[in-house]
Amino acid sequence: MSTMQLIQMFLAVLLIVSVMIGVYLLNKHLKNLTQKQQQINQTLEDIARSQRILANNPKDFEETKRISQIKDKFS
What is the pTM of this model? Predict the structure, then answer.
């Protein structure tokens, strides 16, 4: 095997390793972004629920029950 062939093989392996590291880092970053998005969505749902309760406009039985509890507490 000539020196040129060894250099080419080394560069090919280096390229493959670099691509694998890039894919790993990208996947890690995407997982982090997905977790943050889920946290934001949950926060927005909590805010919407609070706003409906404060406006006395419940979406479901749990919110109706919460409104009743608040009314009873301050009555």
Answer: 0.66
- In whole angstroms, what is the distance from residue 37 CA to residue 24 CA? 20
CA distance 57 to 73: 18
pLDDT, tens digit, for every residue of 19-52?
A: 999 999 999 999 999 999 999 999 999 999 999 9
Strands (E), 5-64: none
Interatomic CA distance for residues 59 and 73, integer angstroms = 21
Instruction: For residue 28, report the phi and psi dihedrals to the nearest 5 degrees.
Output: -60, -45
Contact 25, 18 (CB under 8 A): no
Give the number of other Cβ atoms within 10 Å of residue 51's Cβ. 10
Rounded-to-integer distance, Cα 44 and Cα 51, Å: 10
Q: Quick check: 19 and 30 in contact, CB under 8 A?
A: no
